[in-house]
Design a protein that fits this description.
This protein is mainly α. Helix content is about 75%, strand content about 0%. The chain is rod-shaped and about 70 Å long. The mean pLDDT is about 85.
Length: about 80
């Protein structure tokens, strides 16, 4: 298994434990280069996942604000809902 494959497998596991290192990397389990690259890849994935979750939450908030403003307008309440 190539170094890139090992890193991808560790990222897929979601954690770099000694058990995962041994199961995926075998005798080369404690190759510091693989461990460091896997840590970086896991952090990048977590950052990407967090950014996607924040984007989704922001979109939901905007949609809720727009829906609330539309409902107010339909009721005849012309006051600003976004201040």
């Amino acid at each position: 298994m190539s170094e890139e494959d090992q890193i991808a497998a560790l990222v897929k596991c979601g954690t770099i434990s000694s058990k995962n290192l041994w199961n995926i990397c075998g005798a080369n389990a404690f190759n510091s280069d693989v461990v460091m690259k896997a840590h970086v890849a896991l952090l990048a994935k977590a950052d990407k996942d967090t950014a996607a979750a924040l984007d989704a939450a922001a979109l939901e908030l905007v949609q809720a604000e727009v829906a609330a403003a539309g409902a107010k307008e339909r009721r005849g309440d012309k006051g600003s809902s976004m201040s």
